[in-house]
């Protein structure tokens, strides 16, 4: 039975990993979560793990830095989903090594959930992070490990909730900064929906050794279109400040870390259009074509919560 695949999630208390754990449990998979031996100092994460345990998750002690514990955890499952953070991407080489040693994993989902990193020509300092993701892809392929790469585009919690003003907790109501001309199309998706589509793909032969793109047809907007939609919802016109590509590149060069990373990502998304400037080729599949039954949150629905 397809729903019986046992899933190990690495990074289950992280930003996207917690949604992966919830979706795996909700869709009926035996769910294993790799956790360090010591309880999380962060009380919110400790409570989250307790809630997963109460929902039926198996907490497996181990770490990506401890090869023996990683091997033992991977032996318990059929599928490994990595949700490590941007700055831990290269630690996935340890996961790849352990998967290869175990030899029975049916699918590995490396931590991506953003761009198709093989198609992006980013500026520094984002470039080095994107390059690391590509290195992980090549390592997976070199070892012959079955995989699915999930290209989910822009997380709503980062990009949509702020209308691209990274760092804001809610859409601006007075003034907005728009990079480039504001006409570049961007694809948005709620984090819970990323997780649902990912877990749906776990046992699907159509996603084996493919990139799965989450390009929700109702959720592709330019920033100008987003601002117009938001203005209608709040009944107010925002002051718009446009920053040219040259101006943004200058800001990237001058910004301290990690603001420079955020601005470099914005350059890829809002100026270069790296999320939508290509056609899905034979190596790719699109999530809503595969799973038309999944009810996802639209951009309009998402923004309504802030009105």
From TrEMBL:
Family matches, as CDD domains: PCBER_SDR_a (cd05259)
Molecular functions per Gene Ontology: oxidoreductase activity
SUPFAM superfamilies from the UniProt entry: NAD(P)-binding Rossmann-fold domains
UniProt KW Ribosomal protein keyword: no
Keyword Oxidoreductase in annotation: yes
Domain NmrA-like span(s) in chain numbering: 4-303
Domain of life: Eukaryota
Keywords, comma-separated and alphabetical: NADP, Oxidoreductase
Matches recorded under PANTHER family: ISOFLAVONE REDUCTASE HOMOLOG P3-RELATED, PINORESINOL REDUCTASE-RELATED
Protein name according to UniProt: NmrA-like domain-containing protein
Native source organism of the sequence: Picea sitchensis
């Amino acid at each position: 039975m397809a729903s019986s695949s046992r899933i190990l999630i690495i990074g289950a208390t992280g930003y996207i990993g917690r949604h992966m754990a919830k979706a795996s449990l909700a869709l009926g998979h035996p769910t294993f979560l790799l956790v360090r031996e010591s309880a999380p100092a962060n009380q919110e994460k400790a409570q989250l793990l307790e809630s997963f345990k109460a929902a039926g998750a198996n907490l497996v002690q181990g770490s990506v830095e401890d090869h023996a514990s990683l091997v033992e955890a991977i032996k318990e499952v059929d599928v490994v989903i990595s949700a490590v953070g941007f700055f831990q991407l290269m630690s996935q080489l340890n996961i790849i090594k352990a998967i290869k040693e175990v030899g029975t994993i049916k699918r590995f989902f490396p931590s991506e959930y953003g761009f198709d990193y093989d198609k992006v020509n980013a500026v520094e300092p984002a470039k080095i992070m994107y390059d690391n993701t590509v290195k992980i892809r090549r390592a997976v392929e070199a070892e012959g490990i079955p995989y699915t790469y999930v290209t989910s585009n822009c997380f709503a919690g980062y990009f949509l909730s702020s209308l691209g003003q990274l760092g804001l907790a809610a859409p601006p109501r007075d003034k907005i900064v728009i990079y480039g001309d504001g006409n570049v199309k961007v694809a948005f998706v709620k984090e819970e929906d990323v997780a649902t589509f990912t877990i749906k793909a776990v046992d699907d032969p159509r996603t084996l050794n493919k990139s799965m793109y989450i390009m929700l047809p109702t959720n592709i907007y330019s920033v100008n279109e987003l601002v117009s939609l938001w203005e209608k919802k709040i009944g107010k016109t925002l002051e718009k400040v446009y920053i040219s590509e040259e101006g943004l590149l200058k800001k990237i060069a001058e910004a301290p870390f990690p603001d420079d990373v955020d601005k470099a990502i914005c350059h890829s998304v809002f100026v270069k259009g790296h999320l939508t400037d290509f056609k899905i080729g034979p190596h790719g599949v699109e999530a809503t074509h595969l799973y038309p039954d999944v009810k996802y949150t639209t951009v309009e629905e998402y923004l309504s919560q802030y009105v």
